[in-house]
Please model this.
Amino acid sequence: MSTRHRWRAAAGPVALAALPLAVLAVFFALPLVGMVGRGFVAEGRLDVAGVLSVLGRDRVHRVLWFTVWSAGLATVATVLLGLPVAFVLHRLRFPGRGLLRAFVLMPFVLPTVVVGVAFRTLLTPSGPLGFLRLDGTPAAIVAAMVFFNVAVVVRTVGAMWEGLDRRREEAAAALGASPLQVLRTVTLPALTPGIVAAASVVFLFCATSFGVVLTLGGLRYATVETEIYLLTTQFLDLRAAAALSVLQLAVVTVLLYVAQRTRTRREQALDRSTRGATTRRPARRDLPVLAVTVLVLALLVLPIASLVARSLHAQGRWSLEHYRALATDGGGALLVPATTALANSWRVAVDATLFALLLGLLVTLVVSRRARTRAGRRTVATLDGLFLLPLGVSAVTIGFGFLVTLDRPPLDLRSSAVLVPIAQALVALPLVVRTLSPVLRSVDPRQRHAAASLGAPPWRVLLTVDLPVLWRPLLAAAGFAFAVSLGEFGATSFLARPDRPTLPVVVYELVSRPGEANFGMALAASVVLGVLTVAVMALVERLRLGSVGAF
Amino acid sequence: MPQLRTLAATTTLLTLSGLLAGCSLSGGADESAGDKTVVVATHDSWAMSKKVLEEFTDKTGYRVKIEPNGDAGQLTNKLVLTKGSPIADAVYGIDNTFASRAVDEGVLADYSPKDEPASSSKYTLGDAKGDAQLTPVDYGDVCVNVDDVWFARHEVTPPRTLADLTSSDYKSLFVTPGATSSSPGLAFLLATIAKYGDGWQAYWRKLMANNTKITAGWTDAYEVDFTAGGGDGDRPVVLSYASSPPFTIPKGEKRPTTSALLDTCFRQVEYAGVLKGASNSAGAKAFVDFMTQRAFQDALPDNMYVYPVDSGATLPADWAAYAKTAPDPLTVPPAEIAKNRDTWLREWGDITSR
Model:
């Protein structure tokens, strides 16, 4: 093939991805390079050796090792526990299912400081689960990571699972395969791309979580992320922080490469169920998965219940005092009442969701193409990984990077109102892509070829072949993006304008000051945020369920 | 056709949210920071009633825009990183543990109010360069607090000194936020350094051997582990503030259930200053002036739980009785803190993380 041809094969996807790429360049690459660059320059000279010498420190090796194994273990646990729940909530039919699906997303938006306190209230030696002796152990850290991320697996894999035609499984069973064999030989292979996609996102979230590690580990454990945080905000040791950021980037890139290879090798066209429901009523053989689901739900419910109970307690009595305080400025403590912050959160979330869907659709269309040339395939794979990177890089680095790079024309954006939704959309983008692309990739290309050979122009192919498959995952992705935006704190805390904070920002401000009233308000605000999320998700679920008959 | 209906529903939903989105992007016309607005970078604990700030506007014609920027350390570091393109006009909330860094990095302009309260000279940084740039506004004592009710119920005499905390009588009773992740935690480390000098590491080893618990933040130490913090914890000794006890006065009663140990206190002084390169430096100066004046000083205890540097300012009644400050607080010279902070924190991290 001629060079020009090869070039064109790569240029197609890049053109479609131009907008997302530009956003990524300005709002991710530029701040990252700006901040890391400061660490590399010492007294006006580039000092690469100095940065690299940091990577030789013993402590760095320990920290890296803890990061990888804790996040790795949490990812495995999240996937193992999340799959049965995905099955129950997306393949079985029972009353209350929509609400449960919505509920699973609640942890996702709860501020980590507050959840950290809720977990510690349960685990502290005098707490209800104190006998487990988990306070301050890595097990507590891993449990909290599972708590926050199980929704990623349930929703990403669930969206794929619910569209899967049952006839293949039924055929295998009819041919004498045991349920376990069906699972191993038919179902799991079909779901592998979705599982890998979810697992990589979960790993990135776990590896970059820092509130959880500090709070639940009682400062005894350090991850690359907590080190970067301490080095930047306490020690102002930009060189060491830069070294760790580079290390983080390298680890994430290797991980994404491996995930990419696993996924593409397993990809297959799937028969989609086009008529009738894919769900059935629970049966006796579902008992084991139902048991696991109940266990997972208990893990989610316990900390949330302890949070709710405490938010309803004031001055040693049951009371709604903390909730009433949400409409006030907390006696001068807040620049705006929590209710105003909630309205801000809502508006920002709508913007961020639309933006994430727009970017996400573009990226998905690109990365789900089956490129015919090797160059094309490589470009697609690189693009796919590229948009996951923001999840794997420290929010502190990016946040400070915003401060030092976007402060002068032509990019004087430091106090611009559009920064927050854009930054949140970048965080939500990988989830949108991860929800949409496994589904789109599983569309049999022969369907598209058939449509094309019958004379349909490309847009028509998109509309009649891809879009009908994409509707349901698109709604799931929208809900997901909305939840990400409502709960996002890392980037938002750097970018939100003080007179227009989002609710999580207000919660952090409240938690950082003494007094039962402030703490109570923080808890009440978190509960409101969680309940709002569940309500919105339940609404989305209704829309989705209402559409079942259409496919 | 059901398919069409779904499509219609989804389109409606998207359009509707699009409309809502429209409100948010266009609805917030930027009140441009003109000459009459002073932007003040603060730490997250900023709180001040609107009435007091309106008084400033009435008096000077300037409007104040507050920008919280994390804790004192994060605030200082942000100012250092954005030197030359400052994020605000004035700063409030740099404390004596970070003051020297701000001064050494040259983020501040020289300015001192003309008529500072006489009592504020007790709280200055103590070196010429720093005193010319940073104006003391308020102070607070970080002290060990005890749950008196718990000790009475268990018929144990509460501890009084730092040395008591290492005694086996008080094994597994003390919880403190960590020095690397919390500013009161750092203050406590400095208290032990002030008290024990080079022997502070030995002290901390004994503290750890006595099963002291370390948490990430003040909130989870007080609200989860402390017995009197509302979280039904199991540790009756906690690191907190001299101003914490009044918060534990039960409803309908007069006396708090906890008290601060005044021999264990480290004094944190908070400063204000004008940023170098401020676009509204006249306004910034006016606000620094205002912070040292009676109206603002009077309002400090109720809003931020700190003590005004103006000894003539009025304290709330329950503070005068139950939130006394340490007569002889522990201190470390700011220049020494600046020089050794990183080393101390690293050594502290090694001792406490086993």
Remarks:
- The longest strand of chain B covers residues 135-147.
